[in-house]
Design brief:
Largest sheet: none
Distance between the termini: 33 Å
Helix content: over 70%
Amino acid sequence: MTVLTQPARKLWTEPSELVKHIVARHHASLRQKLPHLDRLLDRIVLDATKPSALLEQVRRDFTTLADLLDTHVTQQEGWLFPRILHLCDSVSASGWACEWEDHLKEALDSQGADSREALERARKVCQALKDPAWSLTGPAGRDFAAAMPALLADLQEHLDLESNILFPDIRDLLRLYGKAAANV
């Protein structure tokens, strides 16, 4: 289990509060940081005097990371989080979980795997930036290298909140108030 950073230690009394926090803090941050980092990489590529295996690797890994995170945010805000909020409302109002409990469990599992892949990709980019050849990418390269650790730290906190607090809480709600509980 990953140790949560200080801001993530806040006690969330309701999953719905945590969903709103993740969207407002972490998804909004990704929407700002990813395009900025992508523009920096574009500038690095344009300024490069010759192709570089390191630059190609960082570009490929960052593009994959950005695509994974864009999909992550879109799926969560478009489907998963509205279902979680509906589940919380349903349990609160009726003491029973909703009818698509199996789909929700599958989505939680899938999100966890996708999140681990994104986090590993971000770590890979940060590791590549330690190569001495990266220092030859100029000011945009230095800006990119300075911004990536902050993105990684924010991503780690974001995924910790989901994997270690939100998703286990939702699994508990489904276990306690799902089909099995309704059949008792």
